C-alpha cells in the first residue's frame, strides 16, 4: 500500500457534545488510556497497514496538534519521501474556518502533486486497531471509485450512544448515507472512512467548492455517491466512536477489560504515541489499587479502583478514586472521594471533598480547576 495509498485524517469533527474536553485542544489530541491521544490510533493503524504518506487537515488549536505530532518521529513519519504533512487553513481569508472544504481548497496543490493514486480519508475520533490492507485489496479488486468502510451493528435499538451517527442504506443498487434514528436492530454504521481514487477526490472537492452548496467534505461526498461506482466494506475490528463525553468515558473504562485492551492496543500492531520519560509509579505503604491503569510518575497513597490515572497524578492518604479518569498532573488530596468523574489536566480536589457523578453522566472537572 505504501506507493498506492496516501492517508488523510480530517480533524473537522463535531465537538458539540464533548466541549468539556475540547475547550483547549482539538478532539484529535484529547488524552486517552493513560498516555495516548485519540489520533494515535488512526495514525498507528495507517502506519501498521503500510501507509507511509499521511496528511492531517487541521481546523484550529494548532499548538496542541504541533506539540503532539511534531515531525511524526514517534510514528516513523519523519521521512524524506512521504511522511507527515499538516495542512493548515489560510487564516488570511474570512472563510478560513467555515468548513473543511474551504480548508481543503487552500491545500489543493498538495493533492495535485501527490504520487499516490488512492486516498484513505478518515477522522481521528473512531478508535480501533484497524488493518486497512484487506479493505484496500477489496477496493482495488472491485476497481470502484469509492469504497465506504463501515461497521456492522447488532441490537441497534438499544445503542442510544449511536443515535445520530451515519447509517448506510442500499436502494436500487445505489448506496446512500443516512442518519441512525434508532429504528433498526441491524445496520451498517458509517464511520467516515473511505478509500477514494485521488482523481475522484479532487473532482468532488473542486465541484463542491465551485457550487458552494456544502461546507463539509462529508456532505459533498454523500451527495455525489450516485455519480460514482461505490461499494461498502464492513470492518471486522471493533470501532469505538467518540463524539460525546459519555462515549469517551465508556470507551476509557472498556480498556480495563483485558481482552478489550489487547484488541485495541496490539491486534494488528502496536499503537504508537509521543514518548515522555517519567519514573515508575510509586505505591506507598497502605495504598490499595485494583482493576486500574496507573501511568508512570503517579504517587498513590490512598485507594484507586476501576480507574485510569495519567502521568504524575497524586492520590493522597485516605483519598478514594473509583470509576474515574484522571488526567496528567492532577491531585486528589487526603480524605477526599472521587467517583464516576473525569478530571482534566492539573485539577486539584481539596481535602475532604466528595465528587460524585454516575454511570450515565460523569462529573467533570476542568483543566487546572481547584475544588477546595
Uncertain regions: pLDDT < 50 for 5+ in a row? Answer: none
Corresponding CATH architecture of the largest domain = Alpha-Beta Complex
Q: Main sheet, how many strands, which sense, barrel?
A: 9 strands, mixed
CATH topology of the largest domain: Spore Coat Polysaccharide Biosynthesis Protein SpsA, Chain A
Structural class: alpha/beta
Please state the overall shape, judged from the principal axes of the Cα atoms.
Answer: globular
> At the fourth CATH level, what is the homologous superfamily of the largest domain?
Spore Coat Polysaccharide Biosynthesis Protein SpsA, Chain A
Secondary structure tally, helices: 10
Strand elements, count: 29
What count of domains describes the coordinates? 2
Helix content: 10-25%
- Mean model confidence by pLDDT: 94
The N- and C-terminal alpha carbons lie at a distance of 54 Å
The radius of gyration computed from the alpha-carbon positions, rounded to a whole number of angstroms, is 22 Å
Describe this structure in words.
The chain is of the alpha/beta class and 372 residues long. The protein has helices at 19-22, 39-48, 62-69, 100-105, 108-113, 132-142, 198-211, 217-224, 245-254, 258-266; strands spanning 5-10, 31-32, 36-37, 53-57, 83-87, 118-122, 126-127, 146-153, 166-171, 174-179, 187-197, 230-234, 240-241, 282-283, 288-290, 293-294, 299-300, 303-305, 308-309, 314-315, 320-322, 325-326, 331-332, 337-339, 341-343, 348-349, 354-356, 363-365, 370-371. Helix 3 links the parallel strand 4 and strand 5. It is globular. 42% of the residues are buried.
